[in-house]
Amino acid sequence: MDKLNAERILDAIPACFDGLKADARAFRILYKLKKSDGSFVCRTVVVGGGVCEILCQSSEDVDLTIRASEQDYLRIATGRLNLEIARWCGNIKYVGNNLLHLELNTYLSPPDSVYLM
């Protein structure tokens, strides 16, 4: 099995997405995660018309931007770091409608081995 990384988790979101639950909701979330080498993992999650897609680039036209280090994101996604504690400590930052990440999670049915933040 390949090493778990932020790209694998984010790219799996459409496969876990339940379009019937999302119905006519439409929003865009940008994940901007800083890697240890200083580069960034950027993925834009686009929800609309009961479908979800991932754009492998950053977009300025988003409803929410989530910023974190890739390491912290992986710790949150695998349950080794509590999301609320990460927010309080500044490990993860939201710019925009910070409730959209919670809404996105209600439309996901992730595999048992992965929790998508």
Can you describe what's shown?
There is one protein chain. The protein is α+β, with helices and mostly antiparallel strands. The protein has a single domain (6-106), classed as SCP2 sterol-binding domain (Nonspecific Lipid-transfer Protein, Chain A), CATH 3.30.1050.10. The protein contains six helices and five strands. The chain has helices spanning 6-11, 13-16, 19-22, 70-77, 83-89, 100-106; strands spanning 27-34, 40-48, 51-55, 64-69, 92-96. It has a five-stranded mixed sheet with strand order 3-2-1-4-5. A hairpin with a 2-residue loop joins strand 2 and strand 3 (51-55). It is globular. Residues 113-117 have low confidence and may be disordered.
Layout of SSEs?
Blueprint lengths: L5 H6 L1 H4 L2 H4 L4 E8 L5 E9 L2 E5 L8 E6 H8 L5 H7 L2 E5 L3 H7 L11
Parallel strand pairs: 1-4
Antiparallel strand pairs: 1-2, 2-3, 4-5
